[in-house]
Amino acid sequence: MCLSSDELETVKSAVQVLEPFEEATREMLSEKFTTLSKIIPLIRTLQDCTVSRKANIFSLCDELQKQFAKKFTGMEANFHIAAGTLLDTRFKKVSFSDIGNSKRIEERLINIMKAVIDDQETQLTSSTAETHQETQTQERKKRHSGKCSTKR
Q1: What ranges does the record give for the region Disordered, renumbered to this chain (predicted)?
Q2: Residue 89: its pLDDT value, please?
Q3: What is the rounded CA–CA span in Å between residue 112 and residue 16?
């Protein structure tokens, strides 16, 4: 099978576009467990790689972009995936295509942390109050038992 020079150039261009997919696959397979935080950066990187101005592979890139839009739209708005990416110091906000999504996730994480802190403070306050009440009750009992033993 002989390829014309145009066909050979098309194959070379397609390989260039598809190489990042191989790299992403290797990255995902290189670890026993791939962390959730890598999903958005990998998808964004692959999406960026499908933007090609070469006429001979425009249809390939166009189809890849359509499939990304179909399969991964809204991923940055998914709290668990986006929070994983945002909390991973390797990626933070860099990987988000919409900075508004990272801001919303960041605000939600802050609110969750505030709620946890408030809950812990409430538990600590009620625990301290209970301990104080127990101490007062024990002191009363000691005073009462002391009075009772002196009356005998």
Answers
A1: 123-152
A2: 86
A3: 43
